[in-house]
Amino acid sequence: MSRSYEGQHVIISFESRKCIHARKCAQNAPHIFNVNADGDWIQPDKGEVQQAIDVANLCPSGAITYQLKNNTPTPEVKVNTAHIWENGPLALRGNLNIENHGASQNATLCRCGLSRKKPFCDGAHIKGEFQATGEVDAAESESTEQTGGQLNVKPLKDGPLYVTGNLEICAGSGRLVKRGSKMALCRCGQSNNKPFCDGTHKSIGFTAEG
């Protein structure tokens, strides 16, 4: 469910289905995002417009987005990235087009195989005690200087996330792991080559909508 909150200069939207409670909003702009406030918990005019923009850019799940009321377009992300969270999801930031879910700039995508909100993370990795390092070894990268542009994410039925477009896979520390334009990323939680798919989803009978 998505709801919009209109201020004098900016409209802030919140999609509860995507929220993973990272608390970037409350930590960085508590006057705008206040669950204890009288009335709406999001009040755009309680802070500076730039604060709202910064929070939307920081929100890892993409649950919070913004639109300036002067119709200034949202700037494109210059480098598409996927950060591997330790024992957790893939945090994507870029010019994303997730099949059947539209465009966004941030998303946390399930890689434990347990989420009930696939392809998005719902925190099930915590209860499921999913274990997978965020500091994987570097892999061979494509030799390209292209870093931006549209990044298409297609969840394959009963299979991995198939990603096309310029993407940098980064360890949790920010270290570059791989740069490429076509990748299959594990979302069954059992690959022996995480975060990449190695076909294990077939042998374990993994099921997920495409």
Automatic annotation (TrEMBL):
<keyword id="KW-0411">Iron-sulfur</keyword>
<keyword id="KW-0479">Metal-binding</keyword>
<dbReference type="GO" id="GO:0046872">
    <property type="term" value="F:metal ion binding"/>
</dbReference>
<dbReference type="InterPro" id="IPR042216">
    <property type="entry name" value="MitoNEET_CISD"/>
</dbReference>
<dbReference type="Pfam" id="PF06902">
    <property type="entry name" value="Fer4_19"/>
</dbReference>
<dbReference type="GO" id="GO:0051537">
    <property type="term" value="F:2 iron, 2 sulfur cluster binding"/>
</dbReference>
<dbReference type="InterPro" id="IPR010693">
    <property type="entry name" value="Divergent_4Fe-4S_mono-cluster"/>
</dbReference>
<dbReference type="GO" id="GO:0005737">
    <property type="term" value="C:cytoplasm"/>
</dbReference>
<keyword id="KW-0408">Iron</keyword>
<dbReference type="Pfam" id="PF09360">
    <property type="entry name" value="zf-CDGSH"/>
</dbReference>
<keyword id="KW-0001">2Fe-2S</keyword>
<protein>
    <submittedName>
        <fullName>Iron-binding protein</fullName>
    </submittedName>
</protein>
<dbReference type="InterPro" id="IPR052950">
    <property type="entry name" value="CISD"/>
</dbReference>
<dbReference type="InterPro" id="IPR018967">
    <property type="entry name" value="FeS-contain_CDGSH-typ"/>
</dbReference>
<feature type="domain" description="Iron-binding zinc finger CDGSH type">
    <location>
        <begin position="173"/>
        <end position="207"/>
    </location>
</feature>
<feature type="domain" description="Iron-binding zinc finger CDGSH type">
    <location>
        <begin position="95"/>
        <end position="131"/>
    </location>
</feature>
